[in-house]
Amino acid sequence: MTGDVSTDDLVSWIHGFRDAVAAHKDELTRLDSEIGDADHGSNMARGLDAVVAKLDPAPANAAELFKTVGMTLVSTVGGASGPLYGTLFLRMGPALASAERMDAATLGAALRAGVEGVIARGKAELGDKTMIDALSPALDAWDGAADQGPPSAARAAAEAAARGRDATEPLVARKGRASYLGERSAGHLDPGAASATLLLEALRDTLADAA
Ligand code: ADP
Ligand code: MG
């Protein structure tokens, strides 16, 4: 069916995420220097370089792809974000099984399984000033636009993620290292919400190109 997503598209997404994080590495690290320990950009860039090195030859299916991505992030990214992003991908894989092509509903369900895994692991709720503030609204936007196909769903999700990221600025952090700052964490964007927005924007760009 036209508009469905292939494993190759998902491999391109991961490459796109690596490229976006590399391009925004200093910005992510600057955000983390304001309310954390100034390592988010370098953590994620290092992990995603290791991921991309494992994608040649390309995995046979989406389940294998996301298992490789998740395991590599868990083992190479330090800090909170490694296990959390690792969990996101490790939970997405089984939701896609070995499907060759995926429609928007299937991919949305996989994203939801991934984000639920992050919530189960990190215990963050919406408004705690974490990556969840970008990921959770993105899922809802995806579902709302899923009947228009993957490129539209991804566009809606990326917009919602960016709004969620921007909305973290005034918040006081209640999870992760930034929470140690208490009220002083307000007035800064959350770095993990910024990288999670890059993840959704990379998916939007990949699917727009593939369409
Ligand atoms: P660390 O804080 O260990 O240095 P990073 O700097 O790589 O790790 O990542 C920080 C980001 O991780 C935060 O900006 C936040 O978005 C995310 N984060 C931290 N703790 C949690 C949590 N419990 N649940 C969800 N996301 C979290
Ligand atoms: Mg950090």
CATH architecture: Alpha Horseshoe
Q: End-to-end distance, in Å?
A: 12 Å
| Unreliable residue runs | none
Radius of gyration: 16 Å
In helices, the fraction of residues equals 55-70%
Widest sheet, order of strands: 1-2
Number of H/I helices: 9
Structural class: mainly alpha
According to CATH, the fold-level topology is: Serine Threonine Protein Phosphatase 5, Tetratricopeptide repeat
Number of domains: 1
| Shape label | globular
Please write the string of helix (H) and strand (E) elements.
Answer: EHHHHHEHHHH
Please explain how this structure is put together.
The protein is an all-alpha fold. It has helices at residues 7-23, 25-35, 40-53, 62-76, 81-96, 104-122, 132-145, 150-167, 191-210, and strands at residues 5-6, 101-102. It has a two-stranded antiparallel ribbon. The chain is globular. The mean pLDDT is 95. Adenosine-5'-diphosphate binds next to helix 3, helix 5, helix 6 and helix 9.
Which structural traits does this protein have?
Serine Threonine Protein Phosphatase 5, Tetratricopeptide repeat; mainly alpha; binds adenosine-5'-diphosphate; 2 strands; binds magnesium ion; 211 residues; single chain; globular
Short description:
The protein is an all-alpha fold. It is built from 9 helices and 2 strands. It has a two-stranded antiparallel ribbon.
Q: How is the topology of this model organized?
A:
Layout: E1 5-6, H1 7-23, H2 25-35, H3 40-53, H4 62-76, H5 81-96, E2 101-102, H6 104-122, H7 132-145, H8 150-167, H9 191-210
Antiparallel strand pairs: 1-2
Bound molecules: adenosine-5'-diphosphate and magnesium ion.
